[in-house]
From TrEMBL, chain A:
The keyword Mitochondrion does not apply. Keywords: Exocytosis, Protein transport, Transport. InterPro entries: Cullin_repeat-like_dom_sf (IPR016159), Exo84 (IPR033961), Exo84_C (IPR032403), Exo84_C_1 (IPR042561), Exo84_C_2 (IPR042560), PH-like_dom_sf (IPR011993). Pfam families: Exo84_C, VPS51_Exo84_N. Belongs to the EXO84 family. Residues 261-271 have a biased composition (Polar residues). The keyword Acetylation does not apply. Residues 303-507 form the Exocyst component Exo84 C-terminal domain. This is Exocyst component Exo84 C-terminal domain-containing protein.
Automatic annotation (TrEMBL), chain B:
Residues 181-200 are annotated as: Disordered. InterPro entries: P-loop_NTPase, Small_GTP-bd, Small_GTPase, Small_GTPase_Ras-type. Residues 187-200 have a biased composition (Basic residues). It is found in: Cell membrane. It is a lipid-anchor. This is small monomeric GTPase. It comes from Littorina saxatilis. Belongs to the small GTPase superfamily. Ras family. It is an enzyme of class 3 (hydrolase). Its EC number is 3.6.5.2. One of its GO terms (biological process) is signal transduction. GO terms for cellular component: plasma membrane. Its main location: membrane.
């Protein structure tokens, strides 16, 4: 029925006049009936409206939540992508082929760089890629000219043998074979080193199915390699020839210089087409033929050979703990190893990885804006533990605390400052002090027995407190908040700070000393404001009793004062008159609040200052009474003035004494003097 | 990795072209390989070619290393020469100097190979230009006889004796190999095997 009516009423073409006219024909009853119906409909609609609003509201809340979750997910996604990117770029760095050399060929400008630096840079990189090449990298002045992958081909049968990587150095050609079972950057094993002096290169123009091949002849070896393109092969032939020529020129210059020095003992047969008939010195060295020393035997163990690659894998998998385990194991093992070049090389490889591992762990603790802090303290502790095991406790401590600082900053920034200062400070204190106490606990767990680090923690905590206080000051003292609010906030901070001592961190003194000055300032300001207020209000004081108009309001007033601790019944007369002036009542209220706030801020250091401030305020009020009594204007109001003065002197000051007692603060002499002075008012 | 092993004849004869620059080593090689004559002169560095041929009914492969007439470093040349089993020592009949140079090539080959009987042919090229001849047939033959090697005159341009010099040399190489197998039964094979081991 209601629905039917609703449908009619909501029709686009609804004509209220026609509708009513039609109803009116049926008489009064029908109209009354309709009125009822419309009324019911109205109520239903209101209900439905409420429901709809509520429904949409909850939907709105839900959507908002959804959006915030989505936002968080997007954030995380972006983190993951950044991490992925950095992973990729670090993998690119690991990649063996320097694209540069591939694309651009030999670089003329390389000559301009300091050759020493160049060597160290390039050849240290070789050490990482090619196993067993340390003797190659040790030659000063040697640098990398060109390198690419090549496929080695059997020179007689043209069968492809293996993947290799060729490194053309400034004075020699190093070949390395690819080790397919390897992971990590150490993918190649040293195969041979050919000096360029007597290296013969053959351009294989026609080898049936094998395209882009060339041969390297170096007695007793003949090796054939296949480049991946005609261009790459051409490049190899050109660069080889070029490098050989350069080396020859250099050698010739050296030789000439030497000859000049040695006073030319024998004429050199320079222009003979055959040249000197000196025997070429083969320099090819195969890895197993390296001078066998005791340390190489020691390093023969399978697990040791695999270790560098295993470490790479563990680091890549971010299994830092496993990596540190391995490092500890190998360090222990190598202690017993006789010193020798092989050990040195192996150690260099391990050290390199330890550095990578350290970097990885450090970055775990590093705070970067794009990284989520949600890793939390446990992840940090984990990283710290591993760093300590790697004997990097100082760095770990530093980073750990920096990380914690960032967490605190982040958490504080998450707080929204909305209106009420106290509320904000309450949250701020909770966040800050609980973070501080968490850090302390975490620190003790993460650095057990590292007493050297504890002082770092103390210094850190102090610094954090300083930055906390600076936020606190800005929000509390510089925000024109009332003394009441300030007192509440200070109390909150102190309470939280005191709780820290339960875990052995006592910073109350530091906090108090940092807060003292602003507190003193605010006390002075408030005191002066009150004195100003007293003077201002008495300007138009008429010393008339309060007229509360009727009994009800008067009772209400009495109750109100009672709640503040004042019994004003004796001052009531003629039903609705109270023998106190409006200003006196006002003063009673405000001075009580003032003292209450001051006592909340109470410290031994502030004791005297607080007493003096209260004294100043009451003295200012007393002076108003005295002035009024002396004034001719108020001859007839003398009894009221005295009554008011007595109220302040006895009741108000009496309440203040009670407050002191309640706060367990001994009554200062100044206040007793003030009371005495009040009692002299007559 | 795909093994690009097609069914290749197992026997490979390794021939090296030696001689001064511009005498026609590359011309001879290309004529033999592809039956074409290249008019332009482009000095060679070191090129190698492989070809399947039928030598007296037997399928074999010839591996030709075409070297440079001018190579600055003796030590490098040694490395090339070491890989050869037979040599075509070429000069140009219209260039006395190139003929003189054969002496030094011969000496170097003998020193490197340490073998007086190394398969070797003295080749006088460019006989299509007889009118410009500076080296007589007799003096060349005389030298060849001194060395106890055959002397053959060729023209890469008109294709005279080109196949002959390569086939004659291959025959020499083959007979030397047979002889070696007969003499030091299995020694050659052993050496081959050992070499492969070091490679792998
Ligand atoms: N007329 C004629 N010209 C020839 C003959 N052989 C070679 N030539 C030409 O002589 C020049 C040099 O020949 P190449 O075969 O490149 O000489 P090469 O011995 O390989 O020289 P290098 O590679 O520098 O050691 C080219 O211009 C050839 O065309 C020949 O038999 N007759
Ligand atoms: Mg040539």
């Amino acid at each position: 029925m209601g629905d039917g009516l609703a449908r009619i009423l909501t029709k686009q073409s609804f004509d209220p006049e026609a509708f009513i006219a039609k109803l009116a024909i049926d008489g009064e009853d029908a109209l009354l009936d309709m009125r009822q119906k419309v009324h019911a409909l109205n109520e239903d609609t209101a209900q439905a409206l409420k429901k709809n609003v509520y429904k949409n509201y909850s939907q709105f809340i839900e959507t908002a939540k959804e959006i915030s979750i989505l936002e968080g997910e997007m954030y995380q996604l972006s983190n993951m992508l950044t991490e992925e990117k950095s992973l990729m770029s670090s993998m690119m760095k690991l990649s063996l082929v320097s694209d540069k050399a591939m694309v651009e060929g030999p670089k003329e400008e390389k000559k301009e760089e300091s050759p020493e630096e160049e060597t160290r840079r390039n050849l240290a990189f070789l050490l990482e890629k090619v196993e067993g090449c340390s003797s190659v990298t040790e030659v000063p002045g040697r640098h990398l000219v060109h390198d690419t992958d090549l496929v080695e081909v059997e020179p007689e049968t043209f069968v492809q043998i293996q993947r290799t990587h060729a490194f053309l150095l400034s004075d020699s050609l190093m070949m390395a074979t690819w080790v397919p079972t390897r992971r990590g950057p150490m993918r190649y094993r040293f195969q041979g080193l050919y000096e360029l002096d007597s290296l013969a290169v053959v351009n294989v123009r026609d080898a049936g199915p094998i395209k882009n091949a060339f041969k390297i002849l170096m007695f007793p070896e003949t090796r054939m390699y296949q480049a991946d393109s005609a261009k790459s092969k051409r490049q190899w032939l050109d660069i080889l020839e070029d490098t050989k020529k350069k080396k020859a020129v250099k050698d010739k210059q050296k030789k000439e210089a030497a000859n000049r020095l040695s006073d030319q003992l024998s004429p050199s047969p320079v222009n003979s087409p055959m040249g000197e008939k000196g025997l070429p010195s083969p320099v090819f060295k195969d890895a197993p033929e390296e001078p066998v020393t005791i340390d190489t035997d020691f390093l023969q163990a399978d697990w040791l050979e695999e270790l560098p690659e295993d470490l790479d894998m563990l680091i890549a998998q971010r299994n830092f703990e496993g990596a540190v385990d391995s490092v500890e194991k190998v360090t222990e093992y190598l202690k017993a190893c006789p010193k020798g070049p092989a050990l040195k090389e192996f150690k260099a490889r391990i050290d390199h990885r330890v550095k990578q591992l350290t970097d990885g762990l450090m970055s775990e603790l590093q705070v970067s804006p794009e990284r989520s802090l949600r890793g939390g303290p446990r992840a940090a502790r984990h990283a710290v533990t591993q760093l300590i095991r790697l004997a990097k406790s100082a760095q770990a401590c530093d980073l750990f605390l920096k990380n914690r600082s960032a967490v605190i900053r982040y958490n504080i920034r998450q707080l929204k400052f909305e209106g009420a200062t106290t509320l904000y400070i309450r949250c701020l204190c909770t966040v800050f002090f609980s973070s501080l106490s968490d850090t302390a606990k975490e620190f003790l767990k993460a650095f057990p027995d590292h007493y050297g680090c504890y002082s770092a923690f103390v210094i850190w905590a102090k610094q954090e407190l300083v930055s906390f206080v600076s936020i606190f000051r800005r929000q509390v003292f510089e925000s024109k908040a009332s003394l009441t609010t300030i007192a509440e906030c200070v109390q909150l901070a102190k309470k939280h700070c005191a709780e820290l001592s339960s875990i052995g961190v006592d910073m109350e003194f530091s906090l108090a000393s940092m807060m003292d000055l602003p507190i003193q300032q605010v006390i002075e300001e408030t005191r002066d404001q009150m004195v100003e207020g007293i003077k201002y209000r008495t300007q138009d004081e008429l010393w008339r009793p309060l007229n509360l108009q009727n009994k009800a309001d008067c009772d209400k007033f009495v109750a109100e004062m009672k709640a503040l601790g004042f019994d004003v019944k004796p001052y009531v007369s003629d039903v609705c008159f109270v023998a106190l002036t409006h200003n006196t009542v006002q003063f009673a209220k405000s001075s009580l609040t003032f003292v209450d706030d001051l006592l909340r801020l109470y410290t031994i250091e502030l004791e005297n200052m607080i007493a003096l401030a209260i004294q100043t305020v009451f003295t200012a009020q007393m002076q108003q009474f005295q002035a009024a009594l002396k004034s001719d204007k108020f001859q007839s109001e003398r009894s009221t003035i005295v009554k008011n003065a007595q109220f302040v002197g006895e009741k108000v000051i009496g309440r203040i004494f009670t407050l002191y007692q309640q706060n367990d603060v001994t009554l200062p002499l100044q206040l007793q003097t003030v009371q005495m002075n009040f009692r002299q008012i007559k | 990795m795909s093994k690009a092993k097609t069914q290749q004849p197992a026997v490979i004869h390794k021939v090296i072209m030696v001689g001064s620059g511009g005498v026609g080593k590359s011309a001879l090689t290309l004529q033999f390989m592809y039956e074409e004559f290249v008019e332009d002169y482009e000095p060679t560095k070191a090129d190698s070619y492989r070809k399947k041929v039928v030598l007296d009914g037997e399928e074999v492969q010839i591996d030709i290393l075409d070297t440079a007439g001018q190579e600055d470093y003796a030590a490098i040349r040694d490395n090339y020469f070491r890989t050869g089993e037979g040599f075509l020592c070429v000069f140009s009949i219209k260039e006395q100097e190139s003929f003189q140079a054969t002496q030094e090539f011969r000496e170097q080959i003998l020193r490197v190979k340490n073998d007086e009987n190394i398969p070797f042919l003295l080749v006088g090229n460019m006989i299509d230009l007889k009118d410009q001849r500076q080296v007589t047939y007799e003096e060349a033959l005389k030298r060849a006889q001194e060395w106890r090697v055959p002397y053959v005159e060729t023209s890469a341009k008109t294709c005279v004796n080109v196949d002959k010099v390569f086939y004659d040399l291959m025959r020499e190489i083959r007979s030397r190999k047979m002889e070696a197998i007969r003499q030091n039964n299995g020694k050659q094979k052993k050496r081959e095997k050992k070499r492969k081991c070091t490679i792998l």
